[in-house]
Amino acid sequence: MAHRADAKSMLDDRGYEGELIRGQNPALLMEKAVRDRITESYYWKEQCFALNAATLCDRAVEVAFIGGTYGQQKPTPFLCLAFKLLQLTPEREIVLEYLHDEDFKYLRAMAAFYVRLTFDPPDIYKTLEPLLSDYRKLKRRNNNGFFLTTMDQFIDDLLTKDRVCATSLWKMPTRQQLEDLELLDERISPLGEEIDEIDADDSMNVDGARNGADGEDGHHDDVEVLS
Q: How many CB atoms lie within 10 A of CB 28?
């Protein structure tokens, strides 16, 4: 009962004096049905109670898959810990430290999820887009069981979808809209140089084929003259 009382007090705006995100208690960024499933779950009561930013990191590195809910709407450890992050609202530097950790990919995924929920739109794109070049495999769980995805696909989902990991994401402006408002620079794809090289090779091959065809035509003309 003490665990539930602790969780409920964090969701009571009347006594909340912490940092506001988009004008509200950050823990309310997840819809009520999801919050209730989390705070009533065994994992939340036994593994998330009294966590702080440091001990949450220790718990997060034990996570073995991403996802929202599964089975009878049971929340995953990933979702429970992400909700705990919302309650803790750690300093941005701590979140970025989680995000840039190369060793623990599920910690990175959790930090990315938190960034999508809490950062301002330009910062979301600036912070998450570099992770589109992280192609490591991730295990994901839903009502149908486990399946494989990749970090870059998960990041793309966060940037483009309205719902990820059983959580409705607030609708943010598109990248193009932010570029038009000069809040973002045009994105240069990390594959840009490779694509340019491929285009250059294709162009050389086309030119070579044309030159070869011209040479063959000239040879036939000479044969006709000699005959």
A: 16
Is the distance from CB of 21 to CB of 29 less than 8 angstroms?
Answer: yes
DSSP state of 189: P
Residues in the chain: 227
pTM, 2 dp: 0.79
Q: What are the pLDDT tens digits along the chain (227 aa)?
A: 444 445 554 555 555 667 888 788 999 999 999 999 999 999 999 999 889 988 999 999 999 999 999 998 999 999 999 999 999 999 999 999 999 999 999 999 999 999 999 999 999 999 999 999 999 999 999 999 999 999 999 999 999 999 999 999 999 999 999 999 999 999 876 655 565 567 667 667 666 666 665 555 544 444 444 43
